[in-house]
Amino acid sequence: MKKNSRTFKKNQPASAPSAGSRLNKYIANAGVCSRRDADKLIATGEIKVNGEVVTELGFKVGQGDEVKYKGKVLVAEKLVYVLLNKPKGFITTTDDPQERRTVMELVKTSGEERIYPVGRLDRATTGLLLFTNDGELAVSLAHPSNNIKKIYKVDLNKPLTKADFEKIVDGLQLEDGLAMVDKLSYLDDKKSLGIEIHIGKNRIVRRIFEHLGYEVVKLDRVVYAGLDKSNLPRGKWRFLTDKEVIRLKHMNSGK
What we know:
This protein is α+β, with helices and mostly antiparallel strands. It has helices at 23-29, 35-43, 135-142, 162-170, 204-211, 242-251; strands at residues 21-22, 47-49, 52-53, 60-61, 67-69, 72-73, 81-86, 116-117, 126-132, 150-156, 172-174, 177-179, 183-186, 192-197, 216-224, 227-228, 237-239.
């Protein structure tokens, strides 16, 4: 049979050309990877539809079509978006060989779909953490070019001097490059600050203050990609609203 032709199970009617879902979206919704990476899998002949290799970008699959990757049948899951107010003492990973408590314990009642954390918060950091099985959105949110806004409340072991305040605002040269913040402000006193950043380097907020000789006593992410902690107690989660999901997707499509 000719490569890229559509085959159908017995008694399974062919979908109209405009019907169905684009193959790369189907793969992404199955939790394999982003749509962009799915295009690479398709182009390199790693995807089969109804037993035939498909390399056509833009190919559509209809209801009843069987999609396989590495011999495994892919099932497009219902897309789920969960926002957690993470407490202290949980690590951001889906599995831990040392059997420490993970954030997955906190969202296990959200449903049967396999969801994953977008980015990470270290064990001692509290605040907003997003989970989803939407691989495309997760990759977009994590990509530095999208400048995703994050706001943290920082409590220090001693007051931040005006001189050090200005150094942070001007940008600090750390071991892995320049660390720029978008906004910095004093809160209740000079030991408590609000910091807005979009860079996603590992432990960046803690490292900024540690570089100047301060210890971060508490670190809480209060805003992530426009989402906040309104009516979301520590340790609790909620589903995103349809409006929130649409806004996140528009944010990452440059609209």
